[in-house]
């Protein structure tokens, strides 16, 4: 019985392939975790809240988003809804994931990430959204400006005894 170097070579190549894929997954996860640590460090070092600054919240866990996105809701309102329900600022990829989890149809956009970024930029120009930057002035997350017109609209009492925000959270009948 002879040694099959061909078989050993194929098995070794297959194992190398599996290990390289595993290394890629590990490297990607490490990268995500490093970014999360940097983002948390940035958020924890934010100065005390001043006018037009982003409030630092003691709870750093992302709140489970309970509000549903209406089927007729546009991307801008859907992004506002996601940001309004989050306890902490969210990155554009986190916003995209939240939209998908809530059932917002992103398939109509050829590049949903670009649409989300452009919408966030426009909302920032309108002072409805604020950017959170790291020390290198790179955008790491976005948060809804709490005193924006949109946020104030959600908090306005009405004749039904509830705010618009509370009414929107109620399940449809």
The CATH topology of the largest domain is Arc Repressor Mutant, subunit A
CATH class label of the largest domain: Mainly Alpha
CA gyration radius, whole angstroms? 22 Å
Oligomer: single chain
Give unreliable regions as ranges: 49-67
Q: Please tally the β strands and state the result.
A: 2
Strand content: 5-15%
**Helix-strand sequence:** HHHHEEHH
Largest sheet: 2 strands, antiparallel
Provide the spatial order of strands within the biggest beta sheet.
1-2
Please identify which CATH superfamily of the largest domain we are dealing with: Winged helix-like DNA-binding domain superfamily/Winged helix DNA-binding domain
Return the structural class: mainly alpha
Give an overview of the whole structure.
Helix 3 (92-101) crosses helix 4 (112-125). This protein has a two-stranded antiparallel ribbon with strand order 1-2. The chain is elongated. The protein is mostly helical and 173 residues long. It has helices at 5-44, 75-85, 92-101, 112-125, 149-154, 164-169; strands at 129-133, 139-144.
List keywords for this structure.
elongated, 2 domains, 173 residues, 2 strands, two-stranded antiparallel ribbon, single chain, mainly alpha, 6 helices, Arc Repressor Mutant, subunit A
Offer a quick outline of the entry.
By secondary structure, the chain is mainly α. It has helices spanning 5-44, 75-85, 92-101, 112-125, 149-154, 164-169; strands spanning 129-133, 139-144.
């Amino acid at each position: 019985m002879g040694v099959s170097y061909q078989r050993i070579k194929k098995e070794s190549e297959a194992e190398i392939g599996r290990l390289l894929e595993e290394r890629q997954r590990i490297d990607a996860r490490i990268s995500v975790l490093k970014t999360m640590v940097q983002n948390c460090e940035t958020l924890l070092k934010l100065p005390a809240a001043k006018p037009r600054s982003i409030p630092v919240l003691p709870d750093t866990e992302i709140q489970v988003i309970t509000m549903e996105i209406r089927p007729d809701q546009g991307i801008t309102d859907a992004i506002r809804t996601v940001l309004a329900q989050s306890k902490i600022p969210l990155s554009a990829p986190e916003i995209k994931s939240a939209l998908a989890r809530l059932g917002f149809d992103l398939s109509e956009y050829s590049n949903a990430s670009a649409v989300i970024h452009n919408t966030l930029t426009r909302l920032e120009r309108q002072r409805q959204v604020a950017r959170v930057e790291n020390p290198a002035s790179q955008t790491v997350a976005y948060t809804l400006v709490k005193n924006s017109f949109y946020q104030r609209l959600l908090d306005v009492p009405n004749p039904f005894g509830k705010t618009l925000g509370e009414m929107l959270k109620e399940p449809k009948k």
